[in-house]
């Protein structure tokens, strides 16, 4: 909750909306209880086994390996007694029960301050999981947001992740209110607020925020001062410096100061005020009256008119007279309104029992980190280590029933991230380089992958230890294509390779012997494996040069081809003269033209192969309607073609013999 009555709404214009990439390399202090409550709300109606462990595991892996942030988890200590009422209200609201239906065990004074045992068990399970993942976990003496703010204030972390505005009151410099790792609603991934922006825009510093929490309410005093909202409280706080605001609240609460001590109240003589009143015209609003202005005109309207008219002009709806009498009257009204406001707010503070509560002020201003020894102690506790894979497999198998192979697959991005980070921080002159899990090392960079708008290196890993197979360790082959399969894809069905493809892509034999691949941040890989990055850049330049060479060659070949006419792409029918000759026997298979039966009187020319002159002469003498020739004339337009009749064919065969 934090500061109530719309404080986040007042800060909304100061919010900074950023993406997850802005958190790379940042140390984040995270309130673990806030994460658990958020996870329970997300999967409240789903049947998931121990969702607090499942979501914590996935969130930590993504936050570290993909985002690149370094989380520091803070666990609540013993809650203060002032927060018992708020905690009980939250419990009833979350469980949807009323106070009368609760058992006597929960409402008794000795057990009212104790935490929910189920929630405490979930917190301890998450602490064990985080320690196995190599994350630092700190235990606060009191509230977790107080320790988060102290870590941020002393520079041990870069920001606090908490939706509770109390972190700002405790002195945090940067508070991340919203952190969306799975941005399904396409909203802002990171919503953060900075104390310097609040001070520059609203003039509020830490003690101002403490006074604001006392006035409008907080987790320790939800009601605050009755009748005082956030706008009135901010108006009051802007009138005083940070060093004097809390002393003023103490004096007002004890009744030592009244509103007359805050403003200068002048005695007003009502009789003199009535005597000094000046009548005004009801039409134009200027000094005088309508009767006088009708008879002798209005000087104010005449001066304002362009034509120097003496008649009164109608006054606008938002007219305010600027005569000395009206200005004095408006000033007196403003002072009276201010006096009334001060009188009301001072009366409300003085009549609130126990205002201001010194215990609440101490809770906000006291810090768990006060000396240099405290700073060095917490700094030594903030350390990230490589996850314990074997113990993690046993823990998740017992609580979530996960297979060890599945745990290895999901924990692999976190392992490679820590390995590359350690490799990047190693001295440049060191000859021996460590191995991932004592067996694996990066082999090459396959390609660049774009994931959610961020370019990543697809890094291939190989086994450097004899008898250790990464594919068997993971029980799968992550994008690992055998060399025979790559060769088969690059060759055709008949075993013929494309010379242009061979020129563009050249895979070295050892690059196909990798065990698995991971997607890593480009900056981390550049710092950890500069030789692989240089080799990959060189190969990309060679590929681009070869591709440009092939494209240039194709362009030259295309220019050498003669341009064809557009008519060459369409079929054209041509009339070909039949000049085929018959053989010596006079037999042939060429068609013969004859006139149709319905036009017997019209003479037609029938084409046939050339033969002897005697045969042609005998045929012409015996036929009355058909004439034969040695050369086929061009076809007559509109003349149908059909086969020679059987009688003519029989006669030709008889005359031959």
From TrEMBL:
<dbReference type="InterPro" id="IPR036279">
    <property type="entry name" value="5-3_exonuclease_C_sf"/>
</dbReference>
<feature type="domain" description="XPG N-terminal">
    <location>
        <begin position="1"/>
        <end position="97"/>
    </location>
</feature>
<dbReference type="GO" id="GO:0046872">
    <property type="term" value="F:metal ion binding"/>
</dbReference>
<dbReference type="InterPro" id="IPR006085">
    <property type="entry name" value="XPG_DNA_repair_N"/>
</dbReference>
<dbReference type="Pfam" id="PF00867">
    <property type="entry name" value="XPG_I"/>
</dbReference>
<comment type="similarity">
    <text>Belongs to the XPG/RAD2 endonuclease family. GEN subfamily.</text>
</comment>
<feature type="region of interest" description="Disordered">
    <location>
        <begin position="626"/>
        <end position="657"/>
    </location>
</feature>
<keyword id="KW-0234">DNA repair</keyword>
<dbReference type="InterPro" id="IPR008918">
    <property type="entry name" value="HhH2"/>
</dbReference>
<dbReference type="InterPro" id="IPR029060">
    <property type="entry name" value="PIN-like_dom_sf"/>
</dbReference>
<dbReference type="InterPro" id="IPR006086">
    <property type="entry name" value="XPG-I_dom"/>
</dbReference>
<dbReference type="GO" id="GO:0006281">
    <property type="term" value="P:DNA repair"/>
</dbReference>
<keyword id="KW-0378">Hydrolase</keyword>
<dbReference type="GO" id="GO:0048256">
    <property type="term" value="F:flap endonuclease activity"/>
</dbReference>
<dbReference type="InterPro" id="IPR006084">
    <property type="entry name" value="XPG/Rad2"/>
</dbReference>
<protein>
    <recommendedName>
        <fullName>Flap endonuclease GEN-like 1</fullName>
    </recommendedName>
</protein>
<keyword id="KW-0255">Endonuclease</keyword>
<feature type="domain" description="XPG-I">
    <location>
        <begin position="131"/>
        <end position="204"/>
    </location>
</feature>
<keyword id="KW-0460">Magnesium</keyword>
<keyword id="KW-0227">DNA damage</keyword>
<feature type="compositionally biased region" description="Basic residues">
    <location>
        <begin position="640"/>
        <end position="649"/>
    </location>
</feature>
<keyword id="KW-0479">Metal-binding</keyword>
<keyword id="KW-0540">Nuclease</keyword>
<dbReference type="Pfam" id="PF00752">
    <property type="entry name" value="XPG_N"/>
</dbReference>
